[in-house]
Amino acid sequence: MSDTVNRKQERDFSPEIAALQPELESLAKQGQIQQALDKLTSLEKQTRNAGDLQSTSTLLTLIPDLTYTLPPSPSYDLLNSNLTLFSKKHGQLKEAVVRMVDKSMKLLDDVKSKGEVNGKNRWLELINTLRDIAEGKIYLELQRARLTKMLAQHHEDLAQTAPLTAPEDSQQKAKPIIEDEDKTAKPAPVTASDHRDLAADLMSEIQVETYSSMDSREKTEFILEQMRLESLRGLWPRVRVGGRKVNRGYLKEAGNADLKLRYYELMIKLALHEDNYLDACKAWQEVWDTEDVKNNEQQNIQAMEHIIMFIVLAPYDNEQSDMIQKLFANPALKKCVLHYELLKSFITKELMRWPGVESLYGPTLRESDVFAPSSRGSSVEDAGTKRWESLHQRVIEHNIRVIAAYYTQITLTRLAELLDLNPDAAERTLCKLVTDKTVKAKIDRPAGIVDFKQKQTADQTLNEWSGDLGKMLGLIEKTSHLINKEYAIHAARGAAAA
């Protein structure tokens, strides 16, 4: 089989190869392809059995020339059949097969440029032949990954011109082109969605993160392509899994800015799909930290604005609070004057009245891609409006935290007035914050009073009493020292006067 370990070379067939090669090329140019292949087959068996890697590789790499490049008209059928045949020869040398596949892959661009020949897509036939040869062979994993990427791109290109919906008779006319492990025929893709799904499925089959033969850049590009295709068909959990396969440390190395921006663009889309604004903020911070972005004033400002918008949209917790404080302390963000003022409002322990926020920041924020209303039909979810409502919610939550810091008790009516809400909405929001353990409060519904003062345990009461008592004794001691000091001063003055 082709997986047999290479044997020690028993004989060198270089003279025979040098003598036969011109004859084979001459026969191919005359159109006598089969005769040339017969002579090649006879000598190839001898070189293979003798373990002559160089001679066997030379003969196998002649196959694309004899069947495609040299003849007056290419013989695609002979090319495909002989590539498969020689790759399966008993005891075939691995490196020879690798060189044959590499040589054949160089024909793909030229074959594709010729389009369909006799009603057949010869490029597709050749790429499927090479993928079949490489299937299950570790020494051809790199070639199979590259071929799969080409095939996936082919189906994605077809999706641009494919119909959005399948014709009624498509099920009868569609020919099966794919078979799974159980040999169950799958119908050929018809619609644009079918082609995109097939492209994503082809790419997802390749686990490049385990490939040692693929360099880091190509591996990262491959994973990013997998993530992009999965995002197009809405399988976001797979995008998240793909994101974990990428080495983020490698993205920060010099020369990888393009990969870093592509990666975090996908991570931002993932975060927004899940309404995870804190992760979106972190992704934008990584974008902002890219040298190319910092050197571009427009992109730099855009990144800072998005960082601020997403950090204020993120639900309040310890991590969000810590991050917003660090961002507020960063002087670079002051370039975004309006957005920085919004950030400052969430830092300051003062009430933010929503009508004022809406009138002051609304005209600018609603024009950004984060809060812009959708121009599509009403049946489509308006993400911009949804985020604007989330911002309103964050303002309300901020106001409740401020009120809880300054009030021990407040009526529900007054609370609703300060929050610019009706009493029911104010109560619901307060209950949510209490449930999330953001604030501590109790509501006396019959009396309509909210109590922010917490009942202390016996230990807390004793600790507070002990602390107060310690402070009082300290003050007494300090006062006693001051009195004694005054006595001493007066006594000294009296003695001086006498």
From TrEMBL:
InterPro entries: PCI_dom, PSMD12-CSN4-like_N, PSMD12/CSN4, RPN5_C, WH-like_DNA-bd_sf, WH_DNA-bd_sf. Signal peptide: none annotated. Keywords: Proteasome. Residues 159-192 are annotated as: Disordered. Transmembrane segments: none annotated. Pfam families: PCI (PF01399), PSMD12-CSN4_N (PF22241), RPN5_C (PF18098). Residues 279-457 form the PCI domain. GO terms for cellular component: cytoplasm; nucleus; proteasome regulatory particle, lid subcomplex. Belongs to the proteasome subunit p55 family. This is PCI domain-containing protein. It comes from Naganishia liquefaciens. The lineage of its organism: Eukaryota, Fungi, Dikarya, Basidiomycota, Agaricomycotina.
